[in-house]
From TrEMBL:
PANTHER family assigned: GLUCONATE OPERON TRANSCRIPTIONAL REPRESSOR, TRANSCRIPTIONAL REGULATOR, GNTR FAMILY
Residues of the HTH gntR-type domain: 29-99
Annotated region (Disordered), positions in chain: 1-28
Record keywords: DNA-binding, Transcription, Transcription regulation
Protein name in the entry: Transcriptional regulator, GntR family protein, putative
InterPro entries per the UniProt record, alphabetical: GntR_C, TF_FadR/GntR_C, Tscrpt_reg_HTH_GntR, WH-like_DNA-bd_sf, WH_DNA-bd_sf
Highest taxon of source: Bacteria
Length: 246
């Protein structure tokens, strides 16, 4: 079922106590990011405790009236940030993750303001971590990892809109980060991506040309090729060019 127009749609709290409206001014974020922000806020406010169930994909979809793809994306964002965990099988579903130091670090990064200086700080931090994350991915990638990265490249290349293109770009980088076994580095890196992701949609309008998109797809394809080859020197070279072009 397609999403309703934003002005007619309310994001429900997944809480069984009832549905609450989405805050009115959430900027350029996607519906999935808005829903993830609502759930995260309620967890941080103590409405959900560590280990407590917040429902299932189906129950969230039914309560929020969002499309299944939107709810799935919101859950993926929360899972990748260490805020919730997915438990399979009977009695499974979506549960609040233990708020250990790594999770608290992610939440701190995602709550920083979107002033130009803090965006610049996030970019600088991400750029320093990019080589660590990507070279680690080159050392630890599996056949499944590479297949996932290539599928995400296709999605990035075939994106219909600039917003979709940017979203697929972030998803690709988050998937690369998942390969890195260094949990601390991964947490900080994904946290910077989350911050930049929520502030980038309106700040990159000057780069929406087909030529620029093709250049970005090309450098990301080179990055995936280097990760697949395991050539760390090639990874460093591509990352340097990737970051210099942003």
């Amino acid at each position: 079922m397609p999403d309703k127009p934003p002005e007619k749609q309310a994001a429900a709290s997944p809480r069984r106590r009832g549905v609450k409206a989405m805050p009115p001014d959430l900027g350029p974020r996607t519906r999935a990011e808005q829903l993830a922000a609502v759930i995260d806020a309620r967890i941080r406010d103590g409405e959900f405790r560590p280990g407590e169930s917040i429902g299932t994909l189906e129950s969230l979809r039914a309560e929020t009236k969002f499309a299944y793809s939107t709810v799935s994306e919101a859950v993926r964002l929360l899972r990748d940030r260490g805020i919730i965990e997915i438990r399979p099988g009977r009695g499974g579903g979506l549960f609040v993750a233990d708020a250990g130091p790594v999770v608290r670090m992610r939440r701190t990064l995602l709550r920083v303001s979107d002033h130009p200086e803090t965006v610049a700080d996030a970019v600088e931090l991400r750029d320093h971590l990019e080589i660590l994350i990507a070279t680690s991915a080159a050392r630890h990638r599996t056949t499944r990892d590479v297949a996932d990265l290539r599928a995400l490249l296709v999605a990035m290349e075939q994106a219909d809109t600039w917003e979709d293109f940017v979203r697929e770009n972030w998803v690709l980088h988050e998937r690369i980060a998942q390969i890195c076994p260094n949990e601390m580095a991964r947490a900080v890196y994904v946290g910077t991506l989350g911050h930049l992701r929520s502030t980038s949609s309106s700040s990159l309008d000057d780069h929406t040309s087909d030529k620029y998109r093709q250049q970005r797809v090309h450098v990301h394809r080179e990055l995936v090729d280097a990760i697949e080859s395991g050539d760390e020197n090639a990874v460093r070279d591509v990352v340097t060019r990737h970051n210099a072009a942003v």
